[in-house]
Request: fold
Amino acid sequence: MGYVAVRGGTEAIEASIERLKYERLRKGRTVDAKAIESGMRALVDQVMSEASLYDEALAALSIKQAEGSPEEAVFLMRAFRSTLPRSHYSLAVDSRHMRVERRISASFKDIPGGQVLGAACDYTHRLIDSGLLGETDEGAARWVAEYLERPVEGAEAGSSIREQEGAIDYVRSLGLLKARPLDEAEPRDVTKRAIEFPTIRSERLQILARGQTGAVTALGYAALRGYGATLHPTVGELRVGRVAVLVPNPLASAGAPGQAEGEAYYVGQIKITAVETLVPVSVPRGMGKTGIEFEIGFGLSFGQNETKAIAMSLLDQCLESGDKGSAVRDEEFVLLHVDSVEATGFISHLKLPHYVTFQSKLDSVRKARRPE
Amino acid sequence: MRSEALYNFAFFDEGSKREVRRAILKAVAIPGYQVPFASREMPIARGWGTGGLQLTLSLVGKDDVLKVIDQGADESVNAVSIKRLVKGTTGIRTTEDARAATIVQSRHRIPEFPLEKGQILVLQVPMPEPLRFVEPSEYATKRLHAEKEYSGAYLALFEEIMKFGRVATGADHPVLVNDRYVMAPSPIPRFDNPKLNGSRALILLGAGREKKIYAVPPFTKVVSLDFEDHPFEAESVAGRKCRFCGAEGVFMDELLDEASGLAAHQCNDTSYCSARRAT
Reply:
């Protein structure tokens, strides 16, 4: 009788896992992880970004296993990531040393180096294209070959790797940026040490960079609507492209700071989205007068995740200001609630049995009701 | 587990295990103090026992025998899931007998059989901060602990007396450890609170999502918060008898007996119940 609610957990779990496999396969078609990697670039990028693990093949496999659920795929990647020893830290990547694929500024029409639209959904009409239903691998290969044959007009845009002077440098040269001392402090790794409050900026940026896309976007949106930013921010520059990752020679004298790049090894390249947002802030000028200066918010994400990176830049500026006037300026509120694995885990734990805790509360309720 | 070869013994790399063990040692040295640690993402979800699991995996050796319970039951789905994971990544033996285990990982219960010297009880913790509902900010609660400023915790109990005529906490009734730190005992029923006091076994508490580890070392004084005129009161088990083993004075599950339509009771600790029936 009543014991079935408690006994038989092992068999029940195995049956549930089998049923999950059945749901994934029952329509008779499997998805090749390779196909996910080539055709679901946006989802792969989102999963790598939230997992903070850059591996396209592994992300594609996780997406396949998770039946396309980003939260599940991120979970798989994170759990795998936490078993990997952290053997090396790369040198800091300067996102201006980028093989630019896309580079736009909303602040200046004519930025040094020019605007490069690259690949983006921004300029498409969101009309469902039924033509894609008949797409074939052969047709795709033919189109790509033709596309690559086409002559490129003008300069070799999109393949420039030389350091570009950014829009931000221009604003700085005009003396409109709030002066900030250069912070060369070694970043703290939030995955090796739990954060404590108040945090430092490197911790905040890491947590936002690996934050859940939807959560970071929602809080960034709140900041924009008036819960944070007081004046309308502008995207100074948004860059998407590939950057080189260098690891210092592990055999060189340990911990020597400021090693020259010549002593480092190139370990590969990653695609990132980097955003600098200009946020106007009021500054007192004395004599009751107020002036306006710009502060910079910075956003960075693995892959092409433009909305998240922009939202992150808004939150970065909000948290830098340190004023706790609103929720999105409160670092505990923002940083403790944007992580996908933490948020989805704790919410889903409500599905676990709470027989003991509920029984305990029931006892209190009954005692409180009973007349003395 | 299929992907066994991909992972180290007990899932973690050795560096991660050492980091967790260092936090454990600090926690044992300062009873009741919440030690922050770099909680790893685990193959089970945050909020499903990842704190306890990280403690277990960092402690487990090849000779250990593990028991896992969830709200009193060894066969509850999440207990089975955790046991499968530890077994799958270590190959160690598991048991349902609390007396035979070297490590007991538990969600929200302390077994009815008293634990002994040499055993470790690992409790899973959802909310490690006993002052969280008084003060939402972590920065502020850390200060309150440092200054041993616990009037908020007592005030919360006092407010319940004013509202309901008695302290109406459910599980997770706060305790004072070693006369120093107020601690969340994890959502064990109040019935289990006295078992923390002077426990012969080491009790470790792990909160994975909140990234905290804390401990009640053996023979440590643990007192449930209360007032002189409103002494601490456990859930009442008087007049309840297990319908299977006839036990009295243990924590019971309450069920609706479909045949009679009346409330029926059975031991919440399922392995305690089956051990009694076997003898």
The first strand of chain B starts at residue 35 and ends at 36. Chain B has a mean pLDDT of 93.
